[in-house]
Amino acid sequence: MKLTTSPILLISSLGLCAGIVSGVHLNTARSPNAQPKRKTSMLIDPPALPDLPTITAAKAAASAFDLNLTDIQGDILIGMKKKKELFFFFSISNATDFKAKLKSTILPLVTNTAQLLDVAQQPQTALNIGFSQRGLLALNITDELNDSAFSGGQLQDISSLGDPGTTNWVPEFVAGHIHGVILLASDTVDNINSTLSGLQSKLGTSITEIYSLQGAARPGSEEGHEHFGYLDGISNPAVEGFQSPLPGQAVVPTGEILVGENGDAGIDNRPSWAKDGSFLVFRQLQQLVPEFNKFLTDNPIRAPALTPKQGSELLGARMIGRWKSGAPVFLAPLVDNPALGADPTRNNDFTYGAPGQTTGKANATDQSKCPFSAHIRKTRPRADLGLPESSSSNHHIVRGGIPYGPEVTGNEATSNTTNIERGLAFGSNTNLSLFKHRMLMLHDLVCYQSSIAAGFQFLQQKWADNTKFIHAGVGFDPIIGAAQGAQRAVTGLDLTNPSRSITLTTDFVVSRGGEYFFSPSLSAIANTLSV
Ligand SMILES: *[C@@H]1O[C@H](CO)[C@@H](O)[C@H](O)[C@H]1NC(C)=O
Ligand SMILES: *[C@@H]1O[C@H](CO)[C@@H](O)[C@H](O)[C@H]1NC(C)=O
Ligand SMILES: *[C@@H]1O[C@H](CO)[C@@H](O)[C@H](O)[C@H]1NC(C)=O
Ligand SMILES: *[C@@H]1O[C@H](CO)[C@@H](O)[C@H](O)[C@H]1NC(C)=O
Ligand SMILES: *[C@@H]1O[C@H](CO)[C@@H](O)[C@H](O)[C@H]1NC(C)=O
Ligand SMILES: *[C@@H]1O[C@H](CO)[C@@H](O)[C@H](O)[C@H]1NC(C)=O
Ligand SMILES: *[C@@H]1O[C@H](CO)[C@@H](O)[C@H](O)[C@H]1NC(C)=O
Ligand SMILES: *[C@@H]1O[C@H](CO)[C@@H](O)[C@H](O)[C@H]1NC(C)=O
C-alpha cells in the first residue's frame, strides 16, 4: 500500500553527504569489519516530520522501559528517514556455510538503533537483515513464532489483500525461493554498492541473489514527498521507550512494534530468542502518477470560489486527507496552508472531533472538513473510534518505506500514461526484464509490527478495503483500497455533495507483491540463528 499504512503514505528523505569516505575502505579499517565513521548523519530529517530522538533522550526513554537499544536492529524504530536504500533478497544455498558467515561477516555489520541515533557511531552504510519463514526453516530454526501470516508467507494472502492475482506481482515474489532480505542504507548509492560487493565476495556461494530493488528519496524540494507529491511520514507513531510524542502523534506501547515487549498480544507464545525482533512487511507498490493527475484534472471539486485547478488540488487533498505540503484538510479544508504543513507541532494536532472534545466520537455525518474515506482517516481514524485515541486502537505500525523510480517524464505527463513509450499498460506484464527497463514510479511499503494480523493486514483489510468502515456507505480508501482489480466506489470526496459516490476505474497504486520477514535482535542472530 503504499500506502498502507498507518498512516500511510510513504516517504523519504534527505541526507547530507559531505566528506564521505567510500566503502572501499571497508577492509582496511581497524577491525576486520569496521567501517569508517561519519561526520554527518546518513539520515534525513525533513523539518515537517517528527524528529528522531537524540541518543541521550532515547537512552533515557529506553532505560525507563528496560529496552536495550543496542540489541534492536536500527531500521525498526527509525522509520522512513533514509536517503538511499537497497533491498537485497536472497536464498540460502549452503546453510552451514551461511550460518558461519552470518556470525563472522554479517553480524558485525548489523546496525543497531543506538548506533543510528549517534552520528559518531553511524557506519558509512547501515545494514539490517530479516528472514522469511522459509529462511528460518533453512537454518533449522523450527520454533513457531506464532504469527500465522508470517508462517504462511505473503503470497498466501494475495486475495485477502485485494490484489488481482499474481498478474502484477514481481515473479520472484511468486516463485517462493526468498529466504531473507538484507537492507542497505546510506546517503549515496556508491556506498551501498561497495558495501554490497564487499559483502557478496565474503558470502560467496553461501547465498544466491534472488532480486533487488534500489530506493531513493525524491530530489530537491520533493524530498520527503511520495510520488503523487504529498509529504509523507507525518503520522508515524511515537513508540514508548524510544521517543516522546509531538502534539497529535499516536503513542504506542513498545510491544505493538517489538515482539516480547509490553503490549505484544502474543507475548506468552513466543520463543525467548524472538524478543526485541519485529515482523517486517515488504510490499512493492507501483504508483500511476500521470493517471492519478489526469483523474484530478478531469474531476475538480466545483466549490464556489475555487478555480478548476484549485478544485483538482482539493480533490487530491481530500483523497489523501492532507495537502501536498502535509497540512491536514481537517484543519485547512479549502486551500493548502503550507505554514501549517511545515510545522510538526501543528500538522498532526487534530482528532476529527470538535474543538476541545476529549471523550466520545467524532460527528458521524460531518465530512465537510475531511472525508471518512480519506487515506489518512481510514488508516488512523482517531476520534472516529472514540477518544481518548489510545484506548480505542491497537493497530499501529512503524512505516519504513522509501520511494523508487525516476520522476515523471515530460512525455508521460503529456500522454497521461505511465511509460507510454513501451505501450505497456501496467498490470498485464509479468516479464521481469521488461519491468526492470520500464520507467516505473514505484514506492515500497516497509513496515514493522509485533503482529502482522493486527498491523498491516488489519489496516488493509478491515479499514482501507472495508467499504462500511467507518460508517456504512463510506466506500474504499481511494489511495490504497483494493478490490482485486474491480472498480472502487468512494463517497465523501465532493464536499458540496458528500453522499455522491465517485467510481475509481483505475487503481492508482498497484501491488507488485512482496513477502513477510522477521527482523531478529542482534543477540538472536548471535546466539540462535548463527549456531
Ligand atoms: C544489549 O544488547 C547487546 C547486543 O546484543 C549486548 O551485547 C548487551 O549485553 C545487552 N545489554 C544488556 C544490559 O543486556
Ligand atoms: C539441519 O538439520 C538437519 C537434520 O538434523 C541436519 O542434517 C543439518 O546438518 C542441519 N543443518 C544445519 C545448517 O544446521
Ligand atoms: C557447505 O559449506 C561447508 C562449509 O563451508 C562446506 O564444508 C560444504 O562442503 C558445503 N556444502 C556444499 C554442498 O557445498
Ligand atoms: C550500483 O550498482 C548497480 C548494480 O550493479 C549499478 O547498476 C549502478 O550503476 C551502480 N551505481 C553506482 C552509483 O555505482
Ligand atoms: C500461539 O498462540 C496461541 C494463542 O494466541 C496459542 O493458542 C498457541 O498455542 C500458540 N502456539 C505456540 C506454538 O505457542
Ligand atoms: C454533525 O454534522 C452535521 C453535518 O455537518 C450537522 O448538520 C450536525 O449539526 C452536526 N452535529 C453536531 C452534534 O454537531
Ligand atoms: C491528458 O489529460 C488531460 C486532462 O484530461 C487532457 O486535457 C489531455 O488532452 C490528455 N492528453 C492526451 C494526450 O490524451
Ligand atoms: C522478457 O523481455 C525481454 C526484454 O524485452 C526479452 O528479451 C525476453 O525474451 C522476455 N522474456 C520472456 C519470457 O518473454
Automatic annotation (TrEMBL):
<dbReference type="InterPro" id="IPR049509">
    <property type="entry name" value="DyP_N"/>
</dbReference>
<keyword id="KW-0575">Peroxidase</keyword>
<feature type="signal peptide">
    <location>
        <begin position="1"/>
        <end position="23"/>
    </location>
</feature>
<dbReference type="GO" id="GO:0005829">
    <property type="term" value="C:cytosol"/>
</dbReference>
<dbReference type="Pfam" id="PF21105">
    <property type="entry name" value="DyP_N"/>
</dbReference>
<keyword id="KW-0408">Iron</keyword>
<protein>
    <submittedName>
        <fullName>Fungal peroxidase</fullName>
    </submittedName>
</protein>
<dbReference type="GO" id="GO:0046872">
    <property type="term" value="F:metal ion binding"/>
</dbReference>
<dbReference type="InterPro" id="IPR011008">
    <property type="entry name" value="Dimeric_a/b-barrel"/>
</dbReference>
<keyword id="KW-0732">Signal</keyword>
<dbReference type="GO" id="GO:0004601">
    <property type="term" value="F:peroxidase activity"/>
</dbReference>
<keyword id="KW-0349">Heme</keyword>
<keyword id="KW-0560">Oxidoreductase</keyword>
<feature type="domain" description="DyP dimeric alpha+beta barrel">
    <location>
        <begin position="71"/>
        <end position="219"/>
    </location>
</feature>
<dbReference type="InterPro" id="IPR006314">
    <property type="entry name" value="Dyp_peroxidase"/>
</dbReference>
<dbReference type="GO" id="GO:0020037">
    <property type="term" value="F:heme binding"/>
</dbReference>
<keyword id="KW-0479">Metal-binding</keyword>
<comment type="similarity">
    <text>Belongs to the DyP-type peroxidase family.</text>
</comment>
